[in-house]
Write a structure and sequence with these properties.
This protein is mainly alpha-helical. The protein is built from eleven helices and four strands. The radius of gyration is 19 Å and the shape is globular. Helix 1 runs parallel beside helix 5 (64-82) and helix 2 packs parallel to helix 8 (137-149). It folds into two domains: 2-152, no CATH class; 154-216, Alpha-Beta Plaits (2-Layer Sandwich). The strands form two sheets. It has a two-stranded parallel ribbon with strand order 1-2. A two-stranded antiparallel sheet has the order 3-4. The longest helix has 21 residues, at 104-124.
Length: 216
């Protein structure tokens, strides 16, 4: 909400700055933020373990987040461009305490999202919030697409199909419920929903998957 409100007055709020940094980071570490640092991701990992690591069946449901993200982010851009007066960056826009979670409205949003994440994870499976709702992942997905097209060296996964034994442990342990074994056997493990968590790398007994820094 602060992003939209700030854009209306020609202000780039702190959240927009973070979105920009996530986009830039994806040129180097892909969706590493999702796999290594995201608190919502960590929460989902904890509750998916409690629910028996139920896999989320992707299908077309994975596109829901884009149906939400596109009009939302488009509105931010349009409002910012149409705003009168000087355009500026104000990281702590409308944050009297300088920490968003300490704001009264933010506590309601925080606990509502926490409850939503828990319910979705326990009901539908691993990382479901990442797949269908997350408003930050599209910035990194877009960055991934661009850096792959431009062949910019980055951290990503590489695989050796000839080494794969077909044990399926990589698919079973994938945090994002991807069919990793199928991708390995095709020789292309690049996927927009891969968060570089390394579960497939660690679980592969034949070391058919590894981290690599370079161009695809």
């Amino acid at each position: 909400m602060l992003s939209l409100s700030g854009a209306y007055f020609g202000i780039v709020s702190g959240s927009c700055v973070v979105f920009g940094l996530l986009f830039i980071s994806s040129f180097i570490v892909g969706r590493g933020f999702c796999g290594w640092l995201c608190p919502a991701g960590g929460m989902q990992e904890s509750f998916s373990t409690a629910s028996g690591n139920k896999r989320f069946h992707l299908g077309k449901k994975n596109g829901i987040k884009y149906a939400l993200w596109i009009p939302w982010f488009s509105s931010i851009i349009v409002l910012f461009l149409l705003a009168a007066g000087e355009k500026k960056i104000q990281f702590f826009y409308q944050l009297s305490s300088k920490i968003s979670i300490l704001e009264e409205y933010a506590l309601f949003v925080y606990f509502s999202l926490t409850l939503l994440i828990i319910v979705l994870t326990l009901t539908f499976g691993k990382r479901v919030f990442c797949h269908i709702i997350c408003w930050m992942s599209p910035f990194m997905v877009l960055g991934n697409i661009i850096k792959n097209r431009l062949k910019i060296p980055s951290l990503h996964l590489k695989c050796e199909p000839s080494v794969c034994s077909g044990c399926n442990l990589c698919t079973k342990n994938c945090s994002m419920s991807l069919d990793v074994k199928k991708m390995v056997q095709k020789g292309d493990i690049n996927h927009s929903e891969c968060i570089l968590c390394g579960e497939c790398v660690d679980s592969c007994p034949k070391k058919a998957i590894r981290f690599h820094f370079g161009s695809h």
